Structures are given as structure tokens and as C-alpha cells.
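Chapter summary example.
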Amino acid sequence: MKFLLGDPNARVVRSLQPIVGRINALERTFEGLDDATLANTTAKIRARLAAGETLDELLPEAFAAVREAARRTLGQRHFDAQLIGGIILHRGQIAEMRTGEGKTLTATAAVYLNALAGNGVHVVTVNDYLARRDCAWMGQIYAALGMSVGCLNHETAYVYDPGIRNQELGIMESGDADRARDLTGAFKVSYDFLRPVHRREAYSADVTYGTNNEYGFDYLRDNMVARAEDMVQRGHYYAIVDEVDSILIDEARTPLIISAPAEESTSEYQQFAALVRKLDPAKDYTVDEKLRAVALTEEGIAHVESLLGVENVYAHGTGMVHQLEQALRAHALYHRDREYVVKDGEIIIVDEFTGRLMHGRRYSEGLHQAIEAKEGVTIQRESQTLATITFQNYFRLYTKLAGMTGTAATEAEEFSKIYGLEVVNIPTHRPMVRRDGADRIYRTEAAKLQAVAAEVRERHAKGQPVLLGTISIEKNEQLHAALEREGVPHTVLNAKQHEREGEIIAQAGRKGAVTLATNMAGRGVDVILGGNPATREEQDEVKGLGGLHVIGTERHESRRIDNQLRGRSGRQGDPGSTQFFVSLEDDLMRIFGGERLQRIMVRLGVPDDVPIENRIVSKQIEAAQRKVEHHHFDTRKHLLDYDDVLNKHREVIYRRRRDVLTGEDPTTVIADMIERECERLVAAYTPGEHATAWELEELARQAGAIIPLTADVEQHLKSQISNLKSPTGKLSAAESRTQLVTTLVSAARAAIDGLRNRIPDDASFRMIIRSVILRAIDQLWIEHLDAIDHLRHGIGLRGYGQRDPLVEYKREAYRLFTELLALIQRDIVAALCHAAPAMEAQSVFERRGIQLSGAQKEMERGRSVDFSSPHREGEGVGHRTSTPPKRLADVQVMNEPPDGIPKVGRNDPCPCGSGKKYKKCHGA
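The structure predicted for these 924 residues follows.
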């Protein structure tokens, strides 16, 4: 097809050459500017932008300014390929650039251009270390152009400040720190240039660096605050996602969740953990490693029932079955030092792609507790979700989104379909000369490890640097032991500290270095031949030895991860080589058809220590990888189809919440709510056109639960009802409904006016209204998340009834959402309408031994109640919950009043002065 139509990627790159030519033509002009004039360029370009010029028109000058600033500060000049990459990023596409081509520097041009609009640009990194590193390293470019730079880390934030270290030391010269940064800035954070600040200040900067987790959690927390001034983000204008495949593909299935502890854990976790150990894997259950699923057989169900002493385990409710299933999953599918590690008495999840420990993350739905019971550590409490969003939906909030990575082509379809992002391959600055060897395939794992160790020993003996990649901590330790036996000195990268990780990877190109790491460890840091920094002699010597040799000890499920490991070698035209060692006992081979190859090797009598090197076999492995990738894509697409439903709900709720926080007068919102609620009430109990069929007494009862009806209003309503029931009534159905609505609205407004009269000033009144609205939204939204979660887990059963589960899910979720909106409205109106009578009765109640809730006492003092404080400690994959606060109108009545104070009878007038009986008012 390319032969007939030409390469579309090459056409795109060629079309950008004239723009690059215009940038290059401005280079001499900008070289002639002094530092002050160069810094003033930003103000001049912004003025032109305000006057009506577009960013596309301003691009050549902006890019030329960034190139000159980088040359003066970093000593690095943007290559033409990097300028092309910057243009692609500005256009909202993905720039695929080979390892070592300078993606970090490439991004600065597009970041600067889009930051001119003044709306803030977010640069997204994969870990806190890279966010700090890039802020301190690239920050000098933006500072030279008069722009501010911020950085987000977990629980901390910084801004780039070149003078902070000097102020601390009382000196004026920062040359030493600056020179050190130029040498080590690529792999070491220069803290001398970072000043700690409040998170909001970091977001207020022109450019903000941070991780995907921090941006996502800040978004969720912003939609949980009680005051507008506590929000930190200022919108979602433009984001560049570094290592875009890692964030938007690998982590797409992991939602961000803020949660809080729920009910206490029970001993049932230990009971089921002990029970599943007694099951026979050969006959009691089956494991599907492709689908990551485990299921009890008929024989297994009978065995479980005999162990539990029950006749039918499914007759004891879903709770027991759920815990049994989770215990079985923990036992059969989750393995220590692969999916998780045990550290300091805790279960810590291991990132399957990077091998890094994911502190603070927890599996949801009781799985984490099941693993804790399996390993015999303290079982932490279960939890409930307070707020959640997927990365897929968070990054679709941005007006413009772009990304960069070394490996995106294999996932181009997903980027296009899910995010609307096109992938453009950027040509390398220098031709790549790396040699990629065919896979060496061994019969057994032991033979493979022995061969790897022998290969490393041989290359180390001649001084060639070697980088070994493993897919898990468990494999890492096995290979470490094999190298120890061979007597090969090596550095083990355990991926526990990102900064140490960067330094180790940066030195992996030194002569004789042997570095053992997980496949993705140190991503974002270049391996420079001869070390970093290195002399020309050291570089030439290592190049003469063949450059960096990368060994992959197992094929990953994704070709992209394998390509990332290969990409460690051969940066910017350097020599290098790669080789994958595979055994038929590896997970990928075992799960996806290795048995057939195993039989062939046995039939041919191939010894364990003799490998097969065959391109056909390698292609079969890649075909298996493509199947896995397609399966994962389908899974992510399926999850997104379901999450899009909840995302629409979230957008509505968060928009309403922000309107309440940022709006000047929430009383207008309440006025509208009162009318809608009264109309809803009347419509619910007055169906049809004949008043004789209306449920008017029930309407009065339900209205009284929401709106406090005084004796006069109650009498008026009874009179209306009597007239409507009369066969001689002359009003039409519509007129009758309008009359009822008017009566209820008047009663509600009178109740709100009563509340207003007890509040000292308008500001306090508005604050109370905001608090009540936010509390109702937050509390009911949490319940809605729980309801949607239950719906989602059970909706698959609709498929057995020949119904499309997704269609059914959308229909049921819509019903739940309309109920949510109605409940929010009802709770807000009821809380505000009942607040004044409750406050009116407070002094009488306290004298009679009746205690008001804390929320009511806050209302009496005219202060707002914070019902929606975020729980930072609950962030992660798992769920945690907080006990919902009491309803605003709740009262607690003591069994007996203090001596000397008469007891209020149920039929006595209520002390609040409403004129109603106590049993129908505050004694209800």
C-alpha cells in the first residue's frame, strides 16, 4: 500500500519542512539579542496574540526564541527533528521519537508557544522524580523567556526559582550549581532551583510539571472542597503527556479513586484464605491465565460446602460467595514478588509494566483484604468510594491534548479511537545502526538463565556494557542469583527509588558495567556510552566494544514494552545490539501455544542447553503478542463504554457543584429548587385529569415531611383538598395543580424566610445555603457511586436473557441518575425548610433535655458546616469510606428529661411554636 500511495507519515513530515525553514531563518536574529531583550520576547508575542494573531502564525518566532534560550541556558540547541516534534505536539498529536532523541527538550517549544495564551500548560510525567527533574532542568529555558514554572509531587509542590539557593546562602553567584545542573540535570534533580510552595501557586504558573496521578487526584479533590478558594486547578487547556503510551494505555484500566474506611474487616477473610488452601487445583477449580479468571468446578463447589458445613453455599447470600471468589483469586492468580510484595507488614502492589512498587494503591472489592489474609498480615478495613475517574476520561477534559513516546505505533489505533490522537513518527537526527538479534529459544527456564549468565560473563570480560531487562521482581532475583554464581559483578535496580534509579541507568553505559533492571525501570533517562558525564575517550572506547548490549530475559505480553527495552541501545546513531532469550516455560509461551513448540523440540531431540534461533518462531511469538494486545484493547474499550456512562453523571454533578461554589448568590438556586420540588410533589400524586382519583392526603403527608406546614397552612391545604374532591369543583386539573403548587411554594418560602431572619447577615446565610447544597450533593453522590458499582457488577447476567448488557446498563444507570437528582433536590429543600423550626425550638428543647445535633448548633450560630472534606490518605486503586454526616434536621431525644423539667407528651403542642402536635413535628 505504501508503495502505491506513498508513506503518509513521510508526507506529514515533509509538509512541516517549510515551517522549520522559517524557524531556522530567524536563528541569527535571536542570537543577536541580549538576555533582557530575549526575555522581553514573551511580552511582545503575547501582545500580538491579544491583538488577534493565532498561535500558528506566532509559531516560528516562539520556537526560535525557545531554541535560543535553550542554547544559552542548557548549552543544547533544538535539532530540526526536535522542531518537527514540537510542531506535532502543538497540533495536538503524538510525536513518536526514538530513545535518546531528546523528547524532554522537544516539548519545551510546544509548551512555550501554548503557554503564551496564559491559561496554563500541564506537562505530565510518569513519576515524581521526572517531574522535579524536568522542572529544575527545563525551568531555566522558560525563566530565560520570562515565564513561571511549577512542579507537583505527592503532598508537595514547587516553583522554579533560580535565586532560592543563593538567598539561603547569602551569596550572589550561582555558577557552581548551574554548571553541576548542566552536567547531571538529565538524571539528577537540582533542588537548588526548586522552592516549596502551595499547590495553587504551582498551578498558577505558566507551565506546570506533574504526574498523571497528581493531576487526576487534584481534579477529584477540587470537586470535594467546601470553599472555592480551596480549589487548586484553574482549568484544562493544554497538556503534553510524556511517555504517553504508559499513561494512556498501560494505566487506562486503573481508575483514580479517593476513598475512606468503611466497615471493620471480619474474620471471614482468614476463614476463606485457609479454606482455599485445602482445595485441589487439579479438580476443584480451573484457572484461565489468558483471561486472568478462576472458577470452581462442580466437584470444587461440593468440597467447599463440605468444608463450610453447609448444604448450598449459594443460599447464604452474595457476601459469602464474593469472599470465596476473592480468596480463590488471591490464592491462584496473585503471586508474591510478582503481582505484589510483602513489606513492613503490608501488601504493596507491583506495577506490571515498570516493576515499581505502587505505595498507597490497593486492590478493590475485597481482593486486597483476601491477599492480606493469604499472607498473614494485618487485614485493613474495607472501603467506599468518595470520588473516582479514569485516566481516559480525565485527559479527555483537556481542550487540546498531545503526547510523546518512543513506542506508539503499535497502539496507534487505540490512540485514534479513544483519544482522537494521531501518531506521527519523527525521523531520527542520525541513522540508527543498532543490531537486533533473533530470539534464542530454550526448552527450560533453568537453561535460559544459565545461557544468559554465560553471555553476560563473556561480554563483561571484554568490557562491553550490558543491560538486562526482566519482567518482574521475582525474575530479577533469579537472574541476580545466576550472575552471582557466574561471578559477574553487577548492579541490581530494584525500582524502589526513582532518583537512584535514574542515576544507575545513566551510568549503565560505562565500560564493563552490568545492570540488572526491570524492563521499564529508569524510563526517561538516557544511557550514554562511557557513562554520564563521559569523556570523549571513554565514549570512543565503549563504541569500539560494540556499544551497549541489551538482553531481554523474557518476552512481554506487549511488543511495545519489548521495543522500549531494545530502545535503550543505539541512541542517536550510537552502535549497540539487542538479544532476547526466551524459554518455553515463560508465561507468554506457556499460555499462548508453547506446548506445540515444546513437542517439536522433544521430537527432534533438542538438548535443554541448545537454543533455537528461527525468525519464523520469533514471528509466532509476535503474533501471540498481537493477540494479547488486541484482547487488552478490547478490554479497555469495553471498560470505557461503561465508564462513559458514569462520566456523563460526573460532569453534571461536578458542574452543579462548581456553580454553587463559584456563584455569587445561591439563594436563586434554592428558589428554583423549591418550585421544582413542589411541582414534582404535586405531579407525583395528581395523575390524570380527574381530581377524585388523586392521592391528596398522601400528597399532604409527603409535603409535610419536606416542608414544615404551620397550622394555618395545613388548614388551608385541607380546605383545598376538600374542594378538589368535591364533585362541584369548577377548577380544571391544570389549575388545581397550580393552586396546590402555589400553596406549597408559599409555605417553603416562609420557612426559608424564617431561617434568614435568624442569621445575622447575608454572607452567613449564603454560606449556610452553600454548605447544605454541597453536603446533599456529596453524600448522595457517594451513594450513587456505590449503586452504579453494584449495577455494573451484576449487569452481565442480563446477557443470559438475550439482552445487551451495555444497553441495559445505560438504561438502568439513567434511571438511577434521575433518582439521584430528585433526591438531591428533595434533601436540600427539606434541610433548609426544617432548619428554622429546629433552631427556633433549640432553647426549649435543651431545657427539656432534648439534644440537637451538632450540625443544628452550627446553624444556630450562623456558621457553615463543612460536609465534604477530602480524604487524601484514601487515594489509590482501593476503596475507603467515611461515615456520612447526619441529616441537618435530625434530632436525638433523650429517653428521660432531667429532673424538674416536664416531659413533652406526643399529643402536646410542639415547643417549637409550629402549632402542630409534638408527634407530628419534632417528635416524629
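To summarize the output: The radius of gyration is 33 Å.
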